[in-house]
Each structure stands twice: as C-alpha cells, then as structure tokens.
C-alpha cells in the first residue's frame, strides 16, 4: 500500500514537472515571437566583435529592446544562433520580436550609411564626404586613394585612383574600412567601363587611362549635360591638330591650395596639368567622371569646333576658328557687341 502511494506521488510529481516544462516551453516560444511593444523608435545598438551572447543580451536589455536577457539567451541557444551572431551596428526597436532581432543579427543585416559621390568630385572632395558620413578619416582615405601599390593591385595603369572612384550612391556599414570603400567604387567603375568601351578606346588610339583623363576634363567643363559630346568634339579636334587643350579646370587641379581665383599668372605657370603650357592630355584625371562623360569621351559629336566659351547660363558658344571665338568672348564674357 505504501509503495502504491509512493508510486502515485512520483507519477503526480512527474506530471506536474512535465506540465511546468510544457508551460515553460510554450512561454519561451511565445516570448520569441512577442515584441516588447507594438511600436518603437529605431535605436542603434552596437555589438562589438567577440562579444558574448550574455553581454549581447544585456546590451539589448539596457537599450530597451528586450525585457528578459535569460529568455533571449535560451531562445538563441535553442535555435543554435548563439555562435552565429555577427558584430556590428544594428538598427533595432522594441517593436521587433526576439526572433526578428536574432534573425537580423545572424544575417549580419547591420545599419548602412549612405554615401553619394557627385560626378566631377576629386579625391579630396570624396574624402570629405567619407568623413562626413562617419565612415573614416579624411587623411586615411586620401592615403589609400593615392597609394600606387594599391592602385596597381586593382589592375589599374595609374598612379592614384583619381578618375576611377565612380560617382554613385553607395551604402556601407560603419566598419566597412577605407580600403573596402575604395575597392567598391573601383569595382563600380570597372562594371561601367565595358569591353565594348575598351575596344572603342583602342579604335580611337587611346588607352583607358587617357579616356578617363579626357572624360574628367569634359566633366569639369560641362554645365549642361547635352553639351558633353560637343565639348568632347572640341578636345578631340584639338588633340588631332596637336593644339593645346587650354582647359581652365586642368590648370586649377595643378594648383596647390587653390583659392578660387584663377589668374593670368596661374595660366602662365608650368605644371604637369597646365594645358595652356603642355600639349596633349595631362598625366591623369582631374576628377572622377560619370558614365555620360566617359561615353562622351569615347563618342564625341562629329564637328569642326575648336573653341568654346561660357555664355554664363551653363551653356557654351562653340566656334570653328579663333576670330569667331574672340567675338564670342567679347559678347559673352566682356558684354561687348
């Protein structure tokens, strides 16, 4: 009789414990799909490299993203996510369930920073944008972008990455690293400069580097997009005739600490980029051209134009001879009839 009572107590205990276990499991899985709140402001949470699961759970609790670190840890272990959480900055909110949070961190879906590079920006201007976006230090970017060994490792026949940092909108994680940012921009350039364009460069008797250099000058000279092929035609015609390009933007590029005021002295000072003094193209690009300027450099309009002058409305007057050009200069630049 006593043995039967003990057996009954044992069975009841087992049943109670089993019931508790079932309730606990149901509670855990319910918790896994239950956000802390219906709505929540996104919060940036930084998970450091090598951070333990426990430390991660505490970080999330302190940020107000989860309520129970213990249950969060338990879910992560049950789903075998505990060793797969990736470090980085995450944009999380209390409106996300623990399952959603874990899934985000397993995928490494970190917060991305938008970086837009306008057409015609040079290395120094891009370095400022990278720093402003919080993606790196200006000096570090300039150092990487002018590292000739790095340039050659990327398969470019150039001394710097000037001209090959393709203008576009990019999205990078906080810890992307300067080399990765530069590499991404160069890869974008390579995807745009197709084999067809390389064949066209050869047809024109130009190297890819020369095309990029010419495109960068076109980019800086163009105010109205539709004029790119016309401006390109002027430079192509001048190159064929062995005339100096006489492009102000190239002169400016060769001036250290340019103050915005281009003078006659600047035009008369020899530098590798002063196309009033040198014949042909300068040694490299003066900016980073976009797709349309690269295309214009390869496919210029068929014209006899040798000169152009700004009409001060973002467009230019094009001329075939010096006499006509001088009249245009007097009209549009000096206000003379």
Helical content class: 40-55%
User: What are the segments in which pLDDT stays under 50 over at least 5 consecutive residues?
Assistant: 15-21
Quaternary assembly: single chain
Largest beta-sheet characterization: 2 strands, antiparallel
**Rg to the nearest angstrom?**
32 Å
Q: Hey, roughly how much beta strand do the residues contain?
A: 5-15%
**SSE run:** HEHHEHEHHHEHHHHHHHEEH
Structural class: mainly alpha
* First and last CA, distance: 126 Å
State the total count of DSSP E strands.
6
User: Could you tell me the mean pLDDT?
Assistant: 91
What can be said about this structure in brief?
This protein is mainly alpha-helical and 337 residues long. The chain has helices at 2-32, 53-62, 69-78, 98-107, 123-132, 138-145, 148-153, 178-192, 195-204, 208-221, 228-240, 248-253, 264-268, 291-298, 322-332, and strands at 43-47, 88-92, 112-116, 169-173, 307-310, 316-319. The protein is built from 15 helices and six strands.
How would you describe the overall organization of this protein?
This protein folds into three domains: 83 residues, Endolytic murein transglycosylase (Dna Ligase, domain 1); 81 residues, Dna Ligase, domain 1 (2-Layer Sandwich), CATH 3.30.1490; 101 residues, no CATH class. Strand 5 and strand 6 form a beta hairpin. The longest helix has 31 residues. About 2% of the residues have low confidence. The protein is built from 15 helices and six strands. It has a two-stranded antiparallel ribbon with strand order 1-2. It is mainly alpha-helical.
